[in-house]
Write a structure and sequence with these properties.
single chain; about 300 residues; mainly alpha; globular; transmembrane helix; TLC-dom
Length: about 300
């Protein structure tokens, strides 16, 4: 009996050691993947910064300084929030993202309304307008927003606000930085890219949801939460999903009007990536909606019993 007992203890200890070793191995693998992703995306961000500074300094592209101004503005906002409200990296990052979504949405809407009132809707969305022309304030607005994506990429890398070997959020930002900066360098498709930023209307409510959950406001019966979800779904459908589909359709219909070169392939590749990410975002949003509704349904069933 004593021998059996000792054998069981050894077996338990052995099993515990195995489980601990397995968990440690999984954690090490995850950490190694995060390191590889961090090194790759940090390198691409550094190359991007060198490219922008080269254009500003050596090619005298002073208008691109708005990119640096945008990155500095959001970095300062980061420090202010960190000093005055919270030092939690995720809360600070989300709050700055909410600020960016609000500023960008107001900028895009004001530019479109101003253009509409000044010249009317006639020809506003023609190919020549969207590709070769630039609406007033569209260029600096795009530069400023591009600066935010660079800041956000750095902030997530600095505080490891990502996971996995290929983090979708870092891929998304890298894709935007490539498309935006190449368009800004060549001064083409500025109006097209401005239209894609209408999706920031939806991002406002994504970030609001994240901030209020971190603040502990999670009651699904709350009127604020209900209104937030309604606005979340409306803006997702119209400001993000539908608008990006329409832009893609417009690109395909006007494909024959593009000159030969990289502009059309890059635009189609960028929109394909954004539409794919929108599908994944919609799935995540639906799952989050179901999770928040479950406690309410369980409480209702409990009361019925």
């Amino acid at each position: 009996m004593l021998g059996e007992s000792r054998s069981n203890v050894k077996a338990t200890q052995s099993g515990g050691t195995f489980r601990f070793t397995e968990l440690f191995s999984m954690a090490s693998t995850s950490h190694e993947q995060d390191n590889k992703a961090g090194i790759f995306f940090s390198s691409t961000l550094l190359l991007w910064l060198v490219s922008v500074l080269f254009e500003i300094v050596f090619n005298n592209r002073k208008e691109l300084s708005c990119i640096i101004a945008g990155a500095c503005f959001y970095q300062i906002a980061n420090r202010v929030i960190r000093y005055l409200i919270s030092r939690d990296p995720l809360f600070v990052n989300t709050s700055v993202s909410l600020l960016h979504s609000t500023i960008t949405s107001l900028s895009v809407v004001s530019i479109l309304v101003t253009q509409w009132l000044r010249n009317g809707s006639s020809g506003m969305f023609e190919h020549s307008q969207l590709v070769g022309d630039t609406w007033q304030w569209a260029y600096p607005a795009l530069c400023f927003s591009c600066g935010y994506f660079a800041y956000d990429q750095w902030d997530m890398l600095q505080y490891r606000l990502y996971s996995g070997l290929i983090p979708s959020i870092l891929v998304h930002h890298l894709l935007l930085l490539i498309c935006f900066t190449l368009a800004l360098y060549r001064n083409v498709t500025i109006n097209y890219l401005l239209l894609t930023l209408i999706c920031e209307l939806h991002s406002i409510f994504l970030h609001v949801r994240k901030v209020r959950r971190m603040a502990g406001i999670r009651n699904p019966k709350s009127r604020f939460v209900k209104v937030e979800w309604v606005l979340n779904w409306i803006t997702f459908v119209f400001a993000r999903f539908t608008s990006h589909i329409l832009i893609t359709v417009k690109l395909i219909r006007d494909a024959h009007k593009f000159e030969q070169g990289i502009v059309l392939p890059l635009a189609l590749f960028g929109m394909a990536g954004m539409n794919l990410l929108n599908i994944f975002l919609g799935i995540d949003l639906f799952n989050a909606f179901r999770r928040e509704k479950k406690p309410q349904q369980m409480n209702n069933n409990h009361h019925d019993e």
